Amino acid sequence: MTKIDPKKVYMLTKKIPRGKVTTYGEIAKVLGGIKYSRAVGKILNKNFDRHVPCHRVVCFNGKVGGFRKGIQRKIKILKKEGIKIRNGKVLNFDKVLFKFSKKVK
Questions:
Q1: What is the pTM for the complete model shown?
Q2: Distance, CA of 72 to CA of 51 (rounded, Å)
Q3: Distance CA 39, CA 17 (A)
Q4: What is the reported pLDDT for 31?
Q5: Fold designation for 6-92
Q6: What's the rounded Cα separation, in Å, for the pair 36 and 92?
Q7: What residue ranges do the domains of the chain occupy?
Q8: Nearest alpha-carbon partner for 22 in 55, 70, 67
Q9: Structural contact between residues 74 and 43, judged by C-beta atoms closer than 8 angstroms
């Protein structure tokens, strides 16, 4: 089993622009495979660096997902950045979804 490097997860997460979101799976895909999306979530849950915008990472289907500081806090931050959310889901998900351009080793 390949381990996912937390530093690489944080590095990629920092690349998500304000007003965009990406998924745990998108980050995992860039780092070695979609099967590591749960590992990405666990790594981001342990993030204490305020410069890593882990609130911009959501579930594959646009659901907001978890957040160490609480889901309502995550929603509040996303809305402040211009992301529209209804019933715990990102609206216009395909338009605000950020995809990385290449794999990272």
A1: 0.92
A2: 20
A3: 22
A4: 92
A5: Arc Repressor Mutant, subunit A (1.10.10)
A6: 25
A7: 6-92
A8: 55
A9: no
Instruction: Assign 3-class secondary structure to the chain.
Output: CCCCCHHHHHHHHCCCCCCCEEEHHHHHHHHCCHHHHHHHHHHHHCCCCCCCCHHHEECCCCECCCCCCCHHHHHHHHHHCCCCEECCEECCHHHHECCCCCCCC
pLDDT digits over 50-102, tens only?
A: 899 999 999 999 999 999 889 999 999 999 999 999 999 999 999 999 999 87
- In the structure encoding, which two tokens stand for residue 65, read together? 């997902």
Catalytically active residues, by annotation: 54
Gap between the Cα atoms of 33 and 82, Å rounded: 30
- pLDDT of 1 strictly over 90: no
Of the candidates 46, 5, 43, the one whose C-alpha atom is nearest the C-alpha of residue 24 is 43
Nearest-angstrom CA–CA distance, 39 and 96: 23
